[in-house]
Amino acid sequence: MNSSLLHKLFIAGGMLLAMAPAISTAAIIGGNLYVSNTGVVTAYFEGTDAGFDSLISVNGSSEFFPNHGTAVGTTWNLGTFSAGTLLNFRLHVVTTGDYFYTGSAANNPDNTVHAQAIENWNGTGRTFVGFEDLWGGGDHDYNDHQFSFSNTQASAVPVPAAAWLLGSGLLGLIGVARRKEQA
Fold first, then answer.
1. Residue 99: helix, strand or coil by DSSP?
2. How far apart are CA 142 and CA 47, in angstroms?
């Protein structure tokens, strides 16, 4: 392959990477939450903008933070966890009887993402989580039950289609380049 062709492939690959989802400290919709370092994880209630009553639990724990009966800033010790432990938060919408989870849409009965996460929220070093409490995702403002956690990190749910698209695009470009060289 000549250097001009390699240069074109490099530029095309960079363009495809630029179109792939970026991982940043911006809101991660449908992300997973993990314990950063072995130790205590503390939850902080951050507020609610919901009409429905709801409660939170994590990894099968008892429910806590009733959204209409908890003062903003209230803390809850979730216990000690090993680094890398997946924290699966559940929103129990008491008013409707629905249960929604952090992570991908496949975790929820309506196949809709119901939570967003933001790492280092407002420079606190904590991970913020906001839930949407309506079936089908409601207005997608993720402010119906809000809380944050120490010693946690968020990661985007992998998007296999994006990786496949990037890989197949690069392979296609290489194939076209080789055909041109042979012609």
1. strand
2. 11
**End-to-end CA gap in the chain:** 13
In this predicted structure, what is the pLDDT of residue 155?
A: 82
Nearest to 86 by CA among 44, 130, 117, 122: 117
Contact between residue 96 and residue 135 where contact means Cβ atoms under 8 Å apart? yes
Single-letter residue type at 113: V
Tally DSSP H helices, then E strands, for the chain.
Answer: 2, 12
User: Which helix or strand (DSSP H or E) is residue 118 part of?
Assistant: strand 115-118
Q: Is 73 left (phi over 0), alpha (psi -120 to 50) or beta?
A: left
Question: Cα separation of 2 and 5, whole Å?
Answer: 5
Q: What are the DSSP calls for 3-54, one per residue? A: HHHHHHHHHHHHHHHHHSPPP-SS-EET-EEEESSSEEEEEEEEE---SS-E
How many angstroms separate the CA atoms of 147 and 128, rounded? 6
Nearest 5°: the CA angle 141, 34, 58 is: 70
> How much of the chain is helix, strand and coil, in % rounded to 5?
25, 30, 40
Predicted TM-score (pTM) of the model is: 0.71
Chain mean pLDDT for the chain: 81
